[in-house]
Specification:
Number of helices: 20
Shape: elongated
Order of helices and strands: HHHHHHHHHHHHHHHHHHHH
Strand content: under 5%
Number of strands: 0
Radius of gyration: 33 Å
Distance between the termini: 113 Å
Largest sheet: none
């Protein structure tokens, strides 16, 4: 009985001690929060006019002057954060003036010294601030830090800092190489990081398309993001025959968008590709081009085993006017005669029914008469044909 009572007393003392420790921790957090808020209020009162001066004159002609009063470490840190926020929000000459002000205030030099220190957290924090200030002299040290950095999420903080500070494409490319060799290849995220760089990003992505490492090629396609650019067609075409299915489909999609005119032999090869997605992309591109040159290629789509490719080919032929409509009707007749069903004929009749509801519009009436003419000419129906002259 006595032993149990002692155990209960000790347990109670333990609970009291734990509660006191937790209360002290909470009190410390609260006190620190109050001190931080008061320091922020003091900074706001002291530097209010200077911050207004910066906001007013950032877009002006004259260079920005440093604060007229001396700053302690806390005030210097607070001003650094305010300038970082302004740099991220602005662009062009106002941003350059703020960056130059940070250099004159010694912020860049101070963080370069921290970057060469031994404390891990200070290095990462210094990398972040140097990235905000676009400190080009920090690029070699940042790349070195990235190469020897452990595999964790702060790698992306350093990578983004490199992109922000870099003035040349080779530095951004080296950053991407380091990230991919470390196994941190997230194409969309790394492409977003590259967007921070003040370089010709399209040229960089075009250069990455020629890299043998598939991770770099994936980053390039993520950065191009389906952009239509004729200058990329040759570089993209080289990726069409790759063994990686995801790269191949992105390459074909971008190639079809980037080329104003598609060589017929390339189109024929893509329409015979074993991947249904590739054939669908090709048929969709031909449909969107609406060029009579590819009428026969779109007719070839009607014989595809994938109904999506057939539908894209039919839409493309309908969009070509009478020549395309005649080819569509001829294919529908051949399909019926072979005993393969009446899917194409049904599609034509659906289009006629849809157009018949838009006869009050000139375009609808013209398309209706053209399709009706091609349909009756092919299937031999004896009905009166209406035309628009």
């Amino acid at each position: 009985m006595y032993t149990n009572l002692n155990a209960a007393v000790f347990f109670l003392y333990g609970l009291i001690a734990v509660n006191m420790i937790l209360a002290m921790i909470l009190y410390g957090v609260k006190l620190r929060s109050i001190q931080r808020r008061k320091a922020e209020e003091r900074f706001q009162r002291k530097f209010r006019d200077y911050l207004i001066y910066i906001q007013t004159n950032a877009a002006g002609v004259e260079r920005l002057r440093p604060p007229p009063m001396k700053m302690n470490a806390v005030e210097s840190s607070a001003l650094q954060h305010r300038l970082n926020d302004m740099i991220e929000m602005l662009a062009g000459e106002p941003r350059d003036k703020l960056i130059e002000l940070c250099e004159r205030l010694g912020f860049v030099r101070a963080h370069l010294n921290r970057l060469r220190g031994r404390k891990y957290r200070e290095k990462v924090d210094a990398a972040y601030h140097l990235g905000c200030m676009r400190a080009k002299e920090a690029v070699p040290a940042l790349l070195e830090l990235l190469r020897h950095h452990p595999l964790d999420s702060t790698l992306f903080v350093i990578a983004r800092a490199v992109a922000k500070c870099a003035q040349e494409a080779k530095d951004v490319k080296e950053m991407l190489r380091v990230m991919t060799t470390k196994g941190k290849s997230f194409p969309d995220l790394l492409a977003d990081i590259v967007e921070e760089a003040r370089i010709d990003r399209t040229a960089l992505f075009a250069d990455l398309l020629q890299e043998p490492h598939p991770s770099l090629v994936r980053i390039a396609f993520a950065g191009l993001n389906g952009a239509s650019n004729p200058t990329l067609a040759a570089a993209v075409y080289r990726c069409i025959d790759t063994e990686h299915a995801d790269i191949r489909e992105k390459a074909i999609e971008l190639y079809l968008k980037s080329s104003a005119m598609l060589p017929k032999h390339v189109v024929a090869g893509l329409l015979e590709h074993p991947s249904a997605n590739v054939r669908l992309l090709t048929a969709g591109a031909l449909r969107d081009l609406l060029h009579p040159t590819y009428a026969d290629a779109m007719r070839a789509c009607l014989r595809d085993s994938d109904p999506r490719v057939v539908a894209a080919g039919a839409e493309g032929l309908l969009g070509l006017g009478l020549p395309g409509m005649e080819r569509l009707c001829a294919s529908a007749w051949e399909q019926r005669e072979r005993g393969d069903g009446t899917a194409l004929q049904d599609r034509i009749e659906e289009e006629l029914a849809s157009l018949s509801e838009r006869l009050d519009m000139l375009d609808g009436l013209t398309r209706y008469n053209a399709l009706l003419y091609a349909y009756e000419k092919t299937f031999g129906r004896n009905k009166r044909i209406y035309r628009v002259v």
